[in-house]
Design goal:
The complex is a heterodimer of chains A (84) and B (426).
Chain A (H helix, E strand, L loop, with lengths): L3 H13 L18 H15 L5 H6 L3 H14 L7
Helix pairs in contact in A: 1-2, 1-4
Chain B lengths: L1 E5 L22 E2 L2 E2 H9 L3 E5 L2 H8 L17 E4 L17 E4 L5 E6 L1 H4 L7 H11 L2 E3 L8 H19 L3 E2 L2 E2 L3 E4 L5 E3 L4 E2 L3 E4 L5 E3 L4 E2 L4 E3 L2 E3 L4 E2 L3 E2 L3 E3 L4 E2 L2 E3 L2 E2 L4 E2 L4 E3 L2 E2 L4 E2 L4 E2 L10 E3 L5 E3 L7 E3 L4 E2 L4 E2 L3 E3 L4 E2 L9 E2 L4 E3 L2 E3 L3 H15 L6 H13 L1 H16 L1
Parallel strand pairs in B: 1-4, 1-5, 6-8, 9-12, 10-13, 11-14, 12-15, 13-16, 14-17, 15-18, 16-19, 17-20, 18-21, 19-22, 20-23, 21-24, 22-25, 23-26, 24-27, 27-32, 28-33, 29-34, 32-35, 33-36, 35-37, 36-38
Antiparallel strand pairs in B: 2-3, 5-7, 6-7, 30-31, 38-39
Classes of the chains: A mainly alpha (84), B alpha/beta (426).
């Protein structure tokens, strides 16, 4: 199974059409995500990991690294198995 | 005699979704007045009391001065309990007389006339128990009262209702501020412009096929054409609108573009061009520029509507537009399919194609999919801003009611969001 980091980066690349994603990249400032993209990314992460995220908390996440941590925590809370 | 309106005796309120998610059925409008106004005018009770779903009771108490969900109103007088979907015009039951429970062919209670002497013998812990107790212990009679079954019934009856209510009011004449040139077609007797209303130059009022009622403070800007039957509510603005026949526009609305045979509640905006036809629009709705709805299918077959997001209901009519819930917002260029359902608090972004026929309440329709978007908190912030711009307040009770609506509508919304997620991941 791919790690959370690999899966988050793959979805981000697919949605935003960017390569070479770094953990410190900001979704908006560095990767060019518009607000609509952010909403869709949240939906895609939920589908990918089979989780439900609080929209306010999810949309407050700024960087790819923070998203990985946030998603890993939600997976843990909701009993979803992941590869760290 | 005390009239008790109960929403609803027939438990059919979802037939009127999304419009009754934030109001009782009797607050729906048809013609010049609400269903409650019509029933009260017909029955002429000494007093009135209301029973609404529990989740909206606290809010509704702030909207009316009469008792709401107060079981003490179920005693001390002759009572007439009534389902608000009963059509006032056809209600031919004497308001007072021996106790009787009016039952339709499906065994549903449409009214309960209970004389004061019989009230004490009934159980009245809550309204449901009271009605069940009355049905079990008092004489039941079969009745064939006609009822409003769905929201589109109101839309389809609107033109006729404006005409009959205009005649009943008996008002006519240009009492407002009318600037020349004004073109009037038909008889001036079929036009009433109330004091304080303003008609700018270059306006056409065409009452040839039905009356036109322009209420106090309304303003009609140049190059608007208003065809009767039509009712324009207090302090509403028509902005160069092509206002075709059969419209009822509530108070404090802003309406432009082409509108036909539609009912719009107060404080809603359709400022710009775009067509709205055979539609029912709630309060605090904003339809972005060029938002257009279809109200007729290309093959002229009956229009169907998906009220619950799953099953289609055949309206039996070839002309039905959109049902748009309170606080819904559409982006510029939104195209609504024939018989569309746009839920309360829904936020819709155009896709360039006609939208799916059911957008759930609180759904954010973005890039062709229903999503959670930024959540209900952000929708509430927008609603607060819109209301404060018109001097209205979003209260804790308002929010508590919409929180309840959020929960009630959750299953349908979650199913749509799940479908959207799958599509996004493909």
């Amino acid at each position: 199974m791919a790690t959370v980091e690999e899966r988050v980066k793959a979805i981000t690349a697919q949605k935003l059409g960017v390569d070479d994603i770094k953990l410190e990249d900001s979704f908006t400032a560095d990767l060019g995500a518009e607000s609509v993209d952010s909403i869709e990314l949240v939906a895609m992460f939920e589908e990918e990991f089979g989780i439900e995220m609080d929209e306010d908390a999810a949309l407050a996440v700024q960087t790819v690294g923070d998203a990985i941590t946030f998603i890993a925590n939600v997976c843990k809370e909701q009993g979803v198995e992941i590869e760290q | 005699m005390r009239l008790i309106l109960i929403d609803s005796l027939r438990e059919n309120r979802s037939n009127f979704y999304p419009l009754v998610l934030g109001r009782p059925i009797w607050e729906l409008r048809c013609g010049i007045s609400s269903l409650a106004d019509k029933l009260v005018a017909k029955i002429n009770p000494d007093e009135i009391a209301y029973f609404v779903p529990d989740y909206m009771a606290a809010y509704y108490k702030t909207q009316v001065e009469k008792p709401v969900n107060d079981v003490t109103t179920l005693a001390g007088d002759d009572l007439l309990l009534l389902d608000p979907s009963v059509k006032a015009v056809d209600f031919d039951v004497a308001a007072t007389g021996p106790s009787e429970i009016g039952i339709n062919e499906q065994g549903q209670v449409l009214y309960a006339r209970i004389s004061e002497k019989d009230v004490d013998g009934l159980k009245a812990a809550d309204i449901e128990q009271f009605v069940a107790s009355a049905k079990a212990s008092l004489p039941n009679v079969k009745c064939r009262l006609s009822c409003w079954e769905y929201t589109w019934d109101l839309v389809l009856a609107n033109a006729e209702e404006v005409t009959s209510e205009f005649a009943a009011l008996g008002q006519h004449g240009l009492e407002g501020d009318v600037e020349e040139p004004l073109a009037i077609r038909g008889s001036k007797k079929d036009i009433y412009v109330a004091p304080g209303a303003r008609i700018h130059p270059m306006v056409t009022l065409d009452a040839e096929h039905g009356p036109i009622y322009v209420n106090e403070g309304a303003e009609i800007h140049p190059f608007s054409r208003v065809e009767g039957p039509c009712y324009i509510g207090k302090n509403s603005l028509l902005l160069g609108a092509k206002c075709r026949e059969g419209n009822s526009i509530g108070d404090f609305c802003r309406v432009g573009g082409e509108v036909e045979e539609s009912i719009i509640h107060g404080y809603s905006n359709k400022y710009h061009d775009g067509f709205l036809g055979h539609s029912y629009v709630g309060e605090w709705v904003n339809l972005g520029a060029l938002t257009t709805n279809s109200d007729l299918k290309n093959d002229y077959s009956n229009v169907s509507v998906m009220l619950d997001g799953r099953r289609s209901v055949d309206t039996g009519s070839t002309k039905v537009g959109s049902l748009i819930g309170d606080h819904a917002k559409t982006s510029i260029g939104t195209l609504l399919n024939t018989g569309s359902y746009v839920g309360a608090m829904a936020l819709v972004m155009a896709t360039g194609k006609p939208l799916p026929k059911h957008i759930p309440s609180f759904g954010w329709f973005i890039e062709g999919n229903v999503t959670k978007g930024f959540g209900k908190g952000r929708l509430y912030e927008t609603a607060k801003t819109a209301m404060s711009r018109r001097g209205c307040q979003w209260s804790e009770r308002t929010e508590a009611m919409w929180d309840a609506v959020f929960e009630i509508t959750s299953p349908v919304r979650k199913a749509a969001i799940k479908k959207g997620r799958r599509r996004l991941s493909m």
